[in-house]
Amino acid sequence: MSAAASTTPPDPSAKSYDVIVIGAGSAGENAADRTTQAGLRTVIVEAELVGGECSYWACMPSKALLRSGAALAAARRVGGAAEAVTGDLDIAAVLRRRDSFTSNWSDEGQVRWLEKTGITLVRGHARLTGVREVTVTADDGTTTVLVAAHAVVVSTGSAALLPDIPGLAAVSPWTSREATSAPGIPDSLAIIGGGVVAAEMATAYAGLGAEVTMIVRSDLLGGQEPFAGELVLAALRGAGVTVLTGVSTTGAARTADGDVTLTLSNGSGVTATEVLVATGRVPRSADVGLETVGLTPGDWLEVDDTLLVRGTAPDLTGDWLYAVGDINHRVLLTHQGKYQARAAGDVIVARAAGRPVDDAPWGSHVATADHAAVPQVTFTDPEVASVGLTQAAAEKAGFRTRVLDYNLGQVAGASVHADGYTGSARAIVDLDREVLIGVTFVGPDVAELLHAATIAVVGEVPIRRLWHAVPSYPTLSEVWLRLLEEYGRP
């Protein structure tokens, strides 16, 4: 129906901007920041809180919930400090600290940042109503029509997937939003899922005193190297978490006393105060007006490496519709969404000015790293930090590889860091180019090792040059030397 939309006369009362951004989460904010700093008049539309999922229901509150328990566990792993630990976590204090990171779910600070940056904010629900046209419906039902001279950026994110399990919707299950914003800690928590959110929330809630049961259909942290899931599984069980693998949930119901009972595929059952569903994400695109420009509501938005939305409808010609963050389904991670947004903002500016677009791999206007150089940290205890390809992914992609493994606990810096340090490291070498294409660390505090690995992978640093990157002693980073020794000096 796009041809009709493109010939509709413009609304004379519409407000004109250079760029319209739909969604004021972290990706949307970054895209708007880039275009505004370059002098393009930019408006951002938000139906909820400015700052989005990461600020209020994901990255920040979840890591705040995890951090207190991680700090306590770290102290207990060091002789002298362990003897000084005489109590458990102060739950109320943990929750107050969590609330401080969300500003008690107030976006006043984020709004002030928009004002300072020069980005116009319009509150309400935005829908595409034509080429470069967005209609915003406010809470009171009034509408505002916005028209962009150059680009519209869709950054509406994703929402938790609620699987089609009989009775599940009726028990009002938690999603990641409820888990990260809960005002108190339930006596028991059942978690359906085995991915990052499931593992992190199991770690957090077990540390906060809840009796936690995980129901994992296949393997824990299945997208990572197998040893990562194995080490985290052992640690969760050691922390008192019941982890049921190889089973699925077949039904759910509330009992008379308010608990949730889950029936499982093996005929057993689990009863808990609350149930958290962490089985994946769906795009927030069902009511964004995609049909107006020839796209399908409810779908992920497919984009090229400049984040330009792909499609065959006539209304998508002209390089004007972009999608950044979760909504494009490339990588559902906040930092990658920001990375995409910076590239999209810069390419919008270049195209608006008629300047050349640097869209070759690793160019300034593309998100090349999305394909095979994505860093990710799972903040369990032990942490899992990875970048690039796993061994299985590298083999599937056709690389001729060599796998380097090392026991992280044998590094001198690890023994200083914690008594009985348990961890592992793996590097995947592309033998034809002799560069690293994947690195995984598992162990306490390995997140801070990850950026060095990311630089090595993105920069395609030759192994013969890595020998000259000398790790400080005694630190965890000495694992780099040990991995190189496993490979052999040129």
Could you walk me through the main structural features you see in this protein, from its secondary elements to its overall organization?
The chain is an alpha/beta fold. Helices cover about 30% and strands about 25% of the residues. The protein is built from 16 helices and 21 strands. The strands form five sheets. Strands 1, 2, 3, 4, 5, 6 and 16 form a seven-stranded mixed sheet that branches. Strands 17-18-21-20-19 form a five-stranded antiparallel sheet, with helices on both faces. The chain has a four-stranded parallel sheet with strand order 10-9-8-14. Helix 4 packs across helix 8. The N terminus is likely disordered.
Beginning-to-end CA distance, first to last residue? 62 Å
Number of strands: 21
Put simply, the count of helices is 16
Please tell me the overall pLDDT.
96
Radius of gyration, taken over Cα atoms and rounded to an integer in Å: 24 Å
Name the overall outline: globular
Outline the low-pLDDT stretches.
Answer: 1-8
Structural class: alpha/beta
The share of residues in extended strands comes to 15-25%
> Helical proportion?
25-40%
For the largest beta-sheet, the strand count, sense and barrel status come to: 7 strands, mixed
Topology:
Layout: H1 2-7, E1 15-22, H2 26-37, E2 42-46, H3 52-56, H4 59-76, H5 91-101, H6 108-117, E3 120-123, E4 125-130, E5 133-137, E6 143-154, E7 158-160, H7 176-181, E8 188-192, H8 196-207, E9 211-216, H9 226-238, E10 242-245, E11 249-254, E12 260-264, E13 269-272, E14 274-277, E15 281-283, E16 321-323, H10 334-353, H11 369-372, E17 375-378, E18 383-388, H12 391-396, E19 401-407, H13 412-417, E20 424-430, E21 435-443, H14 450-458, H15 463-466, H16 479-487
